[in-house]
């Protein structure tokens, strides 16, 4: 390949990149996992839905968490606290939906087949 062919190839590539008229472009995306929670968020730039022609920044995300709450005394059972939060921020404002549930902790005290075989020998 000589110099002119390389220059022509690069011009075609740059022209394609500049004229890519995608309606939605992902600016960032991240995921965070911790011991009892997880968070996902995506930031996109949307140019097709806006009538003014200006791009719109849209941030969407989800956060989940789960905690085991111990009982108040020895006779009460522990409970599991689950939280799910879904949010969106755009030109129309910040919208969030919460889903919170508390349920009793069910521990399965049965032994599996492999464990029984190891114990019995």
Describe the structure.
- Keywords: Signal.
- Residues 1-22 form the signal peptide.
- The chain has 121 residues and is α+β, with helices and mostly antiparallel strands.
- The chain has one domain.
- It contains 2 helices and 5 strands; from the N terminus they run αβββββα.
- It has a 5-stranded antiparallel β-sheet, with no helix packed on it.
- The protein is elongated, with a radius of gyration of 26 Å.
Largest sheet: 5 strands, antiparallel
Q: First CA to last CA: what distance?
A: 73 Å
- Find the structural class using helix and strand composition: alpha+beta
Number of domains: 1
> SSE string, helix = H, strand = E?
HEEEEEH
Share of helical residues? 10-25%
Strand order of the largest sheet: 1-2-3-4-5
Tell me the number of helical segments per DSSP (H or I, 4 or more residues long). Answer: 2
Gross morphology is elongated
The averaged pLDDT comes out at 80
> What radius of gyration results from the CA coordinates?
26 Å
Strand content: over 45%
Which ranges are low-confidence, i.e. pLDDT below 50, for 5 or more consecutive residues? 15-20
How many beta-strand elements?
5
């Amino acid at each position: 390949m000589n110099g002119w062919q390389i220059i022509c190839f690069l011009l075609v590539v740059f022209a394609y990149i500049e004229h890519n008229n995608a309606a939605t472009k992902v600016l960032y995306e991240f995921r965070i996992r911790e011991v009892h929670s997880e968070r996902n968020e995506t930031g996109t730039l949307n140019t097709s839905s806006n009538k003014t022609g200006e791009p719109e920044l849209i941030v969407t995300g989800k956060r989940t968490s789960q905690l085991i709450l111990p009982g108040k005394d020895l006779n009460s059972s522990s409970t599991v606290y689950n939280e799910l939060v879904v949010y969106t921020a755009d030109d129309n404002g910040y919208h969030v939906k919460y889903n919170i549930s508390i349920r009793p902790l069910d521990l399965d005290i049965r032994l599996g087949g492999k464990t029984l075989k190891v114990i019995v020998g």
